[in-house]
Write a structure and sequence with these properties.
Largest sheet: 2 strands, antiparallel
Order of helices and strands: HHHHEEHH
Shape: elongated
Strand content: under 5%
Oligomer: single chain
Distance between the termini: 26 Å
Strand order of the largest sheet: 1-2
Number of helices: 6
Structural class: mainly alpha
């Protein structure tokens, strides 16, 4: 990928992350377990503990990627290798963590992806703020997934096929 296109991709990805980070931070700052759990059933408490954990992890991974992309942009000379590694990590840590959360409080149902309906399905019906935070960031992570599809597997394959650089 030409350096100009890579720089643009880094900048656009960073802007998208900034939006997602803002949405997740606002949600986590305003909602805790006690605000989300409407009954004391063990299954409900377990669901929201996992949900909050997944959102926190996604937030941290997104913040780290946001910072790395900022470093890419601030360097006096654009470092293509560093930029590609940052985008690779963004795909594998953020996009994958969004679509495959550890606690599986929600998941993507591919059958709905092309129907115009929401493809995200929750394991149990969440309260409105919990549902809204995921639905509000879904489009952002879908766009990142589309933009960074190359970094799913092609990037590593290309790296493996490159001849090793000999020390000079």
């Amino acid at each position: 990928m030409p350096a100009d296109n890579l720089q643009k991709l880094c900048s656009e990805s960073r802007d998208k992350l900034k939006s997602a980070i803002s949405i997740m931070e606002t949600f986590l700052n305003e909602h805790g377990l006690s605000q989300l759990v409407t009954d004391e059933e063990e299954e409900t408490v377990h669901f929201y503990k996992g949900f909050l954990s997944d959102v926190r992890h996604l937030l941290v991974f997104s913040e780290v990627s946001y910072e790395k992309l900022g470093v890419v942009q601030r360097r006096p000379r654009f470092d293509i290798d560093f930029a590609e590694k940052a985008l690779y990590h963004l795909y594998h840590r953020c996009v994958n963590n969004f679509f495959y959360p550890k606690n599986e409080s929600y998941s993507e149902d591919g059958r709905y992806a092309y129907t115009g309906q929401d493809a995200i399905r929750f394991r149990m019906t969440p309260v409105r703020p919990a549902r809204d935070v995921i639905m509000n960031i879904t489009r952002i992570y879908e766009e990142l997934r589309e933009d960074l599809a190359y970094y799913e597997s092609d990037y590593l394959m290309g790296r493996r096929l490159q001849p090793e650089k000999s020390p000079v």
